[in-house]
Fold:
Amino acid sequence: MPERLTDARDTTCADADDLLHGIFDARLEILRREAAAEKQISEIREQLALDTTKARQYVELAEAKLSAFVHAHRDNFQKPRMRTTPWGKYGLRTSTRLIIEDAEALIEYAKDNGYPDLIKTVDTIIKDAVTRRIAAGQDVPGASIERGEASEYKLDTAALEAEL
Structure:
């Protein structure tokens, strides 16, 4: 790895080339280690899936049986709604789910009847449009275009992939 430069004015193009080479080598090391880690993670997950297949199948079947039992014996779960055991509890719970069948109709209803709490309107800035207006000479309060130069580098991804 190249040393950190304290004064860029003393740097030559050869020094800058060495810096980019160092970045390339470091990025390559990172990519190789990430690839190796991903491979290990994938292998561990595959083994875990194999090792727990029977347990997962049992849980799926037992959950279905337990749910069928509760629904078949609803009268046993009125008060109390849940049966508590040393391993947890099971029974009935009240569930509510909102189904939006026509979002446009609902939004129109909320607007027409003065129910702003039913909908949310989000204002966002469209940066391209703001940039076009400023570039066309229009004064847009709260926005300006800053021009300048920024240093940049781009690694040759084909060369990185070839090294992997």
